[in-house]
Amino acid sequence: MKGLCTIGRKLGIGVPLCLCLLLPELAHAAEEAPALMPQAAGNTLWTLLGGILVMFMQAGFALVECGLTRAKNAANIIMKNVLDFAMGGILFFAIGFGLMFGSSHGGFIGSSLFFLGGADASTADGMWNLTFWFFQAMFCATSATIVSGSIAERTKFSSYLIGSALVSAFIYPISGHWSWNSLLGGSGGWLGNMGFIDFAGSSVVHSVGGWIAFAGAIVVGPRLGKYDKNGKARAIPGHNLPMAALGVFILWFAWFGFNCGSTTVADGTIGYIAVNTCLAACAGTLGAMFTIWFKTGKPDPSMTLNGCLAGLVGITAGCFEVSPVGSIIIGFLAGILVVYSVLFIDQVLKVDDPVGAVSVHGVCGAFGTLMVGLFAAPGYGTATGLLYGGSIKLLFIQMLGVVVYFAWAFGMGFIMFKIVSALFGMRVSQEEELKGLDITEHKADAYSGFQIFSNE
């Protein structure tokens, strides 16, 4: 076009006449281009923006995990989070997306969506499939990276990558199929067809990651020095609370893409979903702070930060279904629950979870899923909870979903880590753990040239 207009100027016919000469060519190109109505274009743009925000959650998780663990393992944490995303994205493209959104045949999953089934970007359907893959791939990466924090500071990097790959390719997509298969026009999956509600993934994403993390922490075992000879838990403080706090703020910000973007439609519902998401996070922060303050006499920062995440995880299943008042109640209760869960897992079960991932994502994900059966409010979604006069059937279905996701994720996670441990070993040597994984696993130093002093 530029060349034609230049010739037009030389011939003295001007740019307007030049454009007229191009009109037939432009019209023909427009006919061949995929047609998108304004609403469809808006939906695509909104879903893409939501996916971009969810991708930013990887940065949040990396900072939270780094901040709540020791400086000698910071580079290892970063590597795991980066590889969760990079490797998981390829595997979800090749295998996971097809398993999750392909059609079901007699209980077996068959799909033309492996490698996106050669999605044709010249059609409206093809463009939507590509956009939807991008959005869902971010969710897959989130579920996989939850595992990283629970087995931090003592796990072989190579063995971790094997586990992360299996989560992204098989464990997460298969159970996701049960609830979300209808999102791309599939049969719905057996849980979804029963009426199970998990709008943005308290169970599908967070509990799956949390229960796999629980299995991993059990198989790998506690860090050196975590428990004394009498089995009493010792605190191993993280090296950078401001970093952890920044990670929480990033997660809070990106969570609006997680929950609001799950509409995949740019309509008015995204406003109240954002309100519910924000209020639950606020209430979770307060619930955790007041609870730990009451129990210990001090408002502990790390527990307070986990309270914010607990509120976010708790509201994720019902952000489309509950009222703002309901979201405050759910978030506040999740904040209380996460404190008791962290203490119970750490001190009673004696499972070492350095960042509280099992409690935040597994326990509070299950809790938030159950709360849909109670707090789903008329006028806010498609269901009515028990507290608003709805049937108890919804609560039973939510309970079933919680049990199923625990059994699947914990069971498959335990089997997976046991096999990887037997074949390759899950844990580094005692000497490597004492030196730190940055040096022994990566020959790197996250804080080269700085001396990190202990306050003990």
Which key terms come to mind for this protein?
456 residues; mainly alpha; Ammonium transporter fold; two-stranded antiparallel sheet; 16 helices
Write structural notes for this entry.
By secondary structure, the chain is mainly alpha-helical. It has 16 helices and 2 strands. The protein has a two-stranded antiparallel ribbon with strand order 1-2. GO terms for molecular function: ammonium channel activity. InterPro entries: Ammonium/urea_transptr, Ammonium_transpt, Ammonium_transpt_CS, NH4_transpt_AmtB-like_dom.
Structural class: mainly alpha
In CATH's first tier, which class applies?
A: Mainly Alpha
The run of helices and strands is HHHHEEHHHHHHHHHHHH
Which fold name is given in CATH as the topology?
A: Ammonium transporter fold
Membrane topology: Multi-pass membrane protein
Subcellular location: Cell membrane; Membrane
Keywords: Ammonia transport, Membrane, Signal, Transmembrane, Transmembrane helix, Transport
Organism: Desulfovibrio legallii
Outline the secondary-structure elements.
Blueprint: H1 2-11, H2 14-32, H3 38-67, H4 74-101, E1 103-105, E2 108-110, H5 124-150, H6 157-180, H7 190-194, H8 202-220, H9 241-260, H10 269-296, H11 301-316, H12 324-348, H13 357-375, H14 392-423, H15 430-435, H16 437-442
Antiparallel strand pairs: 1-2
Helix pairs in contact: 1-2, 3-4, 3-5, 3-9, 4-5, 4-6, 5-6, 5-8, 6-8, 6-14, 8-13, 8-14, 9-10, 9-11, 10-11, 10-12, 11-12, 11-13, 12-13, 13-14
